[in-house]
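Sequence in, structure out. Go.
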Amino acid sequence: MAAFTVLLTGATSGIGLETARALATPDRRLILACRNRSKAETLRQQLLSAQPACQIDLVDLDLASLASVDRAVTEIFQCCSRLDVLINNAGVMPAQFTRSVDGHELNFAVNHLAPFSLTQQLLPLLRASGRARVVNVSSMMHRFGRPDFDDWPHPARYRQVRAYGSSKLGLLLCTREFARRHQRDGITANALHPGGVDTAITDYPGWMRLFLRSARKGAETSIYLATAPEVASVTGGYFVDCQPKPGTALSNRADLAAQLWQRSEAWLAEWRATAA
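Output:
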């Protein structure tokens, strides 16, 4: 029987690092999908030193590149027959307007479109589990987002908080739509806010860091949604401090979720047509 398999993105620092440390146990196979291979290998050796019996594999993944997502998916299918937990943890929050290699605004590309593509392509492995969980690290900053998904931030109108919030709103909306579409597949999907965490995602002022929680504390809800028996059948939720919360009115609009899902599929189809 294949080992219980967890795929985690963005594991080399912050919340992802603490999540990896908690999930690296002898009864699990942990796949770390990371952009920096050197850092990922260093982490792998650290985890194996603490848990020698744990199986840990590395996959190269740069979420700013849809081609990299496709290559990672191919590699994952070559080494896995099923996937029990997918944690879309990696994220960015650039201070200045930046484009991905595919031309999308970087918050949108990394925090929404790439995880959307990754999750959709891994559906056969998630279905093979029969009890899979998808865990998406969103943010309370989704409250600052706007559903203007066809007019994603123009360089002259770029505002860091709004762009980041919009990408996290998109991730939360599609979490809910995924849950609706796959509730009969034995796959749950939930999103979470990790809290205000002292990580390297943005350059916080020194005084603000006094009020931020540790990465270990920030990882608790991700770990809870990935492992807790009491949420094994819970889907479409938004969690804060391991408790369900309603989220904003926008994040609960089924019409917006369906629209964004369709637009995300269209964006990916456009990219594939161009890349072919």
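Check: Strands lie at 4-9, 28-34, 55-60, 85-88, 132-137, 187-193, 238-240, 243-245. The first strand starts at residue 4 and ends at 9.
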